[in-house]
């Protein structure tokens, strides 16, 4: 069985990190497909190679000489080559990149060279084959990722290549032009490679030992998450707890391949295992607590609203026409609130247009937009089989004198979403954490 290992930018930021990566790969003969990011930050105020490349592209556009703009990128790679004592040279590649810039290569091409060059170095260092992602990962002519073609082409390449390095972040359009995924997209590449290779595991190596139950900026030293299901992670990452690129779970999820988030700087830590399904007999009832500020509730009241045929459809149609995606929609007999990301409501002018349209179409008795809401998702597969979870969430909040403005429980009983005032956000996360995690920790003497 093969494992796919993806290393993030900080895991490959310099020669010393390359050494750790090689040691990790050599420790397990099943780690045969490697997906690198571009070199990331070596220290706090350092610049990632991807950002250097975007800068380089802008500088060349404004008339700067390519060689001068590209110099800091070149320096980063040459330093790695020198410190690792590699025989490989990237000089010819630098010349080719310069030629492509002069021939008008696009911004995505520029950014993708970070992963491309790092892939060449890592393949050489490991003694693995180098497979250019542009030969196996494809977009259609509209620029959408083409899953079927990619899976077939990449699968065929990997079948003939027992050990390979495939750079992350980019693929090719049908005409061969390079296109990148969104930022952090090497996670997605890792997932595509795992699926195409039929891997038994996708290891995603980064600089933290997996996911934490809550944001460490809010909760002091939160517990780690050992096992999480794909569905739970979706609920949490959707609320902003991302360590992993949003799209990365889809290819492996459909192929039933688990993901293990691991720490390059602490390889013995178990990290977090993301699995298709897991036992609901969990250590903690709650797997994770995450949330986000900046929501607004569009609150509509109308007598007998629930028996007015087509009311919801008309309301949703107006929202759709204004490019607004409802996040939650708690309803009562005569009321409905639509919770949306505040920024989607736009400026005062846009808001006024939306309000007028909703009033015209729905003729409400009362209409209001309430800003300054925060949403918190309390997520756990263990909730389904245990009674009283919601009671405990609300007991914790009421004890802390936090007013709950909205409640929503997903039909899967995997989450409870609570809307509160933004000012109570941090406090709410802390008290829910205390209720479910601190109070359930085994006693230590
Ligand atoms: N290097 C790219 C970025 O900085 C892609 C990645 O690291 O996944 O976003």
- Strand order within the widest beta sheet: 3-4-2-1-7-9-10-8
Which fold does the CATH topology of the largest domain refer to?
Carbamate kinase
How many beta-strand elements? 15
Provide the CATH top-level class of the largest domain: Alpha Beta
> Approximately how much helix is present in the residues?
25-40%
Give the count of helical stretches: 13
| Biggest β-sheet description | 8 strands, mixed
* Unreliable parts: none
Architecture of the largest domain in CATH?
Answer: 3-Layer(aba) Sandwich
| Net shape | globular
Indicate the radius of gyration in whole angstroms: 25 Å
- Count of discrete domains: 2
Structural class: alpha/beta
- Element-level helix/strand string: EHEHHHHEHEEEHEEHHEEEHEHEHEEH
Task: Give the terminus-to-terminus CA distance.
Answer: 44 Å
Q: What share of the residues does DSSP label as strand, in percent?
A: 15-25%
């Amino acid at each position: 069985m093969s494992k796919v290992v993806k290393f993030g930018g900080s895991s490959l930021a310099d020669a010393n990190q390359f050494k750790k990566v090689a040691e990790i790969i050599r420790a397990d003969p099943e780690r045969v497909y490697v997906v690198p990011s571009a070199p990331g930050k070596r220290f706090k105020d350092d610049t990632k190679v991807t950002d250097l490349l975007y800068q380089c592209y802008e500088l060349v556009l404004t008339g700067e000489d390519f060689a001068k703009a590209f110099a800091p990128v070149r320096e980063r790679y040459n330093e790695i080559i020198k410190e690792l004592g590699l025989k490989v040279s990237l000089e010819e590649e630098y010349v080719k990149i310069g030629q492509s810039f002069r021939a008008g290569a696009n911004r995505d091409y520029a950014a993708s060279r970070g992963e491309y060059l790092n892939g060449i170095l890592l393949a050489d260092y490991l003694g693995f084959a180098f497979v250019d992602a542009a030969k196996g990962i494809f977009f259609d002519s509209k620029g959408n990722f083409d899953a079927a073609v990619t899976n077939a082409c990449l699968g065929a390449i990997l079948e003939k290549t027992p050990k390979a390095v495939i750079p992350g972040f980019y693929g090719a359009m049908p005409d061969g032009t390079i296109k990148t995924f969104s930022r952090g997209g090497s996670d997605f590449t890792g997932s595509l490679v795992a699926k195409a290779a039929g891997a038994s595991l996708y290891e995603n190596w980064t600089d933290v030992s997996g996911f934490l139950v809550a944001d460490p900026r809010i909760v002091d030293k939160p517990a780690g998450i050992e096992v999480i299901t794909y569905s739970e992670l979706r609920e949490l990452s959707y609320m902003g707890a991302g360590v992993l690129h949003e799209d990365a779970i889809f290819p492996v999820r459909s192929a039933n391949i688990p993901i293990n988030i691991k720490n390059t700087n602490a390889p013995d830590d178990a990290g977090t295992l993301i699995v298709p399904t897991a036992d609901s007999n969990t250590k903690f009832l709650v797997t994770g607590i995450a949330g986000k500020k900046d929501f607004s509730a569009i609150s509509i009241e109308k007598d007998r609203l629930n028996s007015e045929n087509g009311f919801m459809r008309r309301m949703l149609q107006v929202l759709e026409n204004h490019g607004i995606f409802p996040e939650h929609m708690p309803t009562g007999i005569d009321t409905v609130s639509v919770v949306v990301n505040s920024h989607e409501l736009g400026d005062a002018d846009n808001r006024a247009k939306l309000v007028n349209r909703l009033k015209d179409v729905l003729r409400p008795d009362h209409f209001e937009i309430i800003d300054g809401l925060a949403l918190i998702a309390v997520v756990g597969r263990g909730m389904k089989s245990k009674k009283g979870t919601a009671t405990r969430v609300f007991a914790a909040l009421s004890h802390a004198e936090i007013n709950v403005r909205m409640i929503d429980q997903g039909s899967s009983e995997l989450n409870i979403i609570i809307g509160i005032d933004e000012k109570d956000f941090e406090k709410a996360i802390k008290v829910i954490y205390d209720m479910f995690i601190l109070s359930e920790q085994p006693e230590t003497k």
